[in-house]
C-alpha cells in the first residue's frame, strides 16, 4: 500500500506489526548486521542517470557503516540531515549519489587540473581493502594511464571499452578485482 507519511520525506516512519511474523525480532535486520566489524570493500558510486561517477570503500565500524571517497560534488542520495544513509545498511556494491549543489552542470574531475605529463605512485586495493600492489598513474594527451596493475587483476570499474571513472579522480588508491570475477 500507499502511505501518506512517505510523501512528507520523514526522518522517522511509524510501523506496526501485521501479525504475520510472530517470531520476528523487534528490530529490523539489515545485511550489514551480519558483516564482521572491521570489514571493508570497494563500492561504485552511481549518479541519478545511472552513470558510474567514481569508486570508494565502505567499512563496518561497530554498528556503523562508513563510506570513503565520495566523489567531489556528490553526496549520498538518501543522506539525512544527520548524515545517515539507509542504503549503507544494505552493504551494497553500488551506492546512489546525487549532486550536492556545488557541481557545475558540466562535470569536472580532479584530473582536469593535472598537467599533461604528470605521474604519481598509486596503491592497488582489492575488495577486502588489502594493498595487492603498487603502480604508476600518468596523464598524457588528456588521457589517464595506469601501469603495473597486479597480474590477475583489473580495475574494479573498468567498462567494456577499458574506461575507468576512478582514474578521473587522480587517486592515491585504485580498487581492483580479479580478472575472472
Short structural summary:
This protein has 181 residues and is mainly beta. 0% of the residues lie in helices and 34% in strands. Strand 2 and strand 3 form a beta hairpin.
Secondary-structure blueprint:
Elements: E1 40-46, E2 52-61, E3 64-68, E4 74-76, E5 94-99, E6 119-125, E7 131-140, E8 143-147, E9 153-155, E10 173-178
Parallel strand pairs: 1-5, 6-10
Antiparallel strand pairs: 1-2, 2-3, 4-5, 6-7, 7-8, 9-10
Describe what you observe in this structure.
The chain starts with 39 loop residues before the first strand and ends with a strand. Helices cover 0% and strands 34% of the residues. Strand 2 and strand 3 form a beta hairpin. It is globular. The protein has a five-stranded mixed sheet with strand order 3-2-1-5-4, with no helix packed on it. It is mainly beta and 181 residues long. It is built from no helices and ten strands. The protein has two domains: 71 residues, no CATH class; 69 residues, no CATH class.
Report the principal-axis shape. globular
Percent range for β-strand residues: 25-35%
The SSE order reads: EEEEEEEEEE
Give helix % range.
Answer: under 10%
Derived from helix and strand composition plus strand pairing, the structural class reads mainly beta
Total count of strands: 10
Our count of helices gives 0
How much is the average pLDDT?
83
Biggest sheet, spatial arrangement of strands = 3-2-1-5-4
Distance between the termini: 39 Å
Uncertain regions spanning at least 5 consecutive residues: none
Domain count: the total is: 2
**Largest β sheet strand count, sense and barrel closure:** 5 strands, mixed
Q: Kindly provide the radius of gyration, computed on alpha-carbon positions and rounded to a whole number of angstroms.
A: 19 Å
